């Protein structure tokens, strides 16, 4: 036999995980352990049937707007655009994450009540993501990792768990030094 059909990997549609983040000296935020975190969010899976269904509807909606305005065709031109305000893709996706992925939080308060934990709400969550867009990206990455059971696969492959890291600030790996006997340039 030349071709083997493998089973599709089972996605975790109902998993949830607390994800911590903290402020950086530059004013942004970075993911970290909950022990080191200024705040934490409870994130659900991107494999959730409702999340996937609503995400698909958003994509279809945006596609219909593009088709209506002839985006991507030779007939597209800014002079022909209707005097209508269309939804922004970012607004729709932030609403989706606030509704389906971020389920709760800890360590979040409001300016009018500093130090008093703010109860989770979809509207406050959207405000947080507009204020700190990195929260959106942290939630998407964590939701994807939950769906793919990334940590479980890593442990199964290596036989031991790997420590979690926040990654380098620049996103680039450090160059390693070559040994003295290395011939390559």
Topology:
Layout: E1 16-23, E2 29-32, E3 39-44, H1 49-68, H2 89-100, E4 102-106, E5 109-110, E6 113-117, H3 122-131, H4 133-148, H5 150-158
Antiparallel strand pairs: 1-2, 1-3, 3-4, 5-6
Helix pairs in contact: 1-2, 2-3, 3-4
The rough form would be described as flat
Give the % helix. Answer: 25-40%
Adjacency order of strands in the biggest sheet? 2-1-3-4
Structural class: alpha+beta
Mean of all residue-level pLDDT scores: 83
Low-confidence stretches: 168-185
- What is the number of independent domains? 1
- The number of helical elements comes to 5
Radius of gyration: 22 Å
What is the β-strand count? 6
Strand content: 15-25%
Distance between the termini: 44 Å
N-to-C SSE series? EEEHHEEEHHH
Q: Could you give a short account of the major beta sheet?
A: 4 strands, antiparallel
Can you walk through the features of this model?
Helix 1 packs antiparallel against helix 2 (89-100), helix 2 (89-100) crosses helix 3 and helix 3 (122-131) crosses helix 4 (133-148). This protein has helices at 49-68, 89-100, 122-131, 133-148, 150-158; strands at residues 16-23, 29-32, 39-44, 102-106, 109-110, 113-117. Residues 168-185 have low confidence and may be disordered. It starts with 15 loop residues before the first strand and ends in a 27-residue tail after the last helix. It contains five helices and six strands; from the N terminus they run E-E-E-H-H-E-E-E-H-H-H. Strands 2-1-3-4 form a four-stranded antiparallel β-sheet. Strands 5-6 form a two-stranded antiparallel ribbon. It has one domain. The chain is flat. The protein is of the alpha+beta class. Strand 5 (109-110) and strand 6 (113-117) form a beta hairpin.
């Amino acid at each position: 036999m030349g071709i083997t059909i493998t089973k599709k990997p089972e996605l975790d549609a109902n998993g949830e995980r607390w994800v911590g983040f903290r402020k950086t000296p530059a004013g942004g935020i970075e993911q970290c352990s909950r022990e080191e975190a200024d705040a934490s969010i409870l994130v659900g899976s991107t494999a959730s049937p409702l999340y996937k269904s609503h995400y698909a509807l958003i994509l279809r909606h945006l596609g219909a707007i593009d088709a209506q305005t002839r985006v991507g065709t030779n007939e597209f031109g800014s002079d022909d655009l209707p005097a209508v305000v269309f939804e922004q893709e970012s607004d729709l996706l932030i609403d989706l994450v606030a509704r389906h992925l971020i389920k709760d939080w800890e360590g979040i308060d409001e300016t009018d009540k500093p130090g008093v934990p703010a109860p989770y709400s979809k509207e406050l969550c959207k405000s947080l993501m507009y204020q700190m867009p990195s929260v959106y990206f942290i939630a998407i990455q964590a939701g994807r990792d939950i769906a793919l059971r990334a940590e479980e696969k890593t442990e199964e492959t290596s036989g031991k768990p790997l420590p979690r890291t926040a990654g380098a600030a620049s996103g680039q790996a450090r160059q390693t030094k070559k040994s003295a006997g290395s011939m390559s340039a």
